[in-house]
Design goal:
The chain is an alpha/beta fold. Helix content is 37%, strand content 25%. The chain contains 4 helices and 5 strands.
Length: 115
């Protein structure tokens, strides 16, 4: 697998879609696994809003995120969101970031993938 230096993955929610939360969680698990299987690894993964639940204690996708990180992807979680949800001390993978870094990343990357 190789890192795609022009690809960023933006996860603005811990689920996919607006339907049943448990279905949305299953879809997110499958989505991340399919990206891994595609072998097109994003250089950066940014989690914002409820997306920070993917990088914190209790996440069902930590194994997938660890695989991305092992391949060289940088994983970032919104610091404001971690504070809002009182999960800063529960961060299990990656590091906190701020809006300036997120916006700069979105402007820098040629391709931004989001479910």
């Amino acid at each position: 697998m190789a890192i795609e230096s022009d690809l960023m993955l933006f996860l603005g929610s811990s689920t996919i879609g607006d339907g049943e939360p448990d279905l949305g969680e299953k879809l997110m698990q499958s989505y991340l696994k399919m990206i891994l299987e595609s072998e097109r690894i994003p250089a950066k993964i940014v989690c914002m809003n409820s997306g920070i639940f993917l990088t914190t204690e209790g996440s069902q996708v930590l194994d997938s995120l660890e695989a991305f990180e092992k391949e060289g992807a940088e994983i970032l979680s919104c610091g404001t969101c971690l504070d809002y949800y009182k999960r800063k001390d529960k961060l299990k993978i990656g590091s906190p970031t701020d809006m300036k870094t997120t916006v700069n990343s979105m402007l820098q990357f040629k391709k931004i993938l989001s479910p």
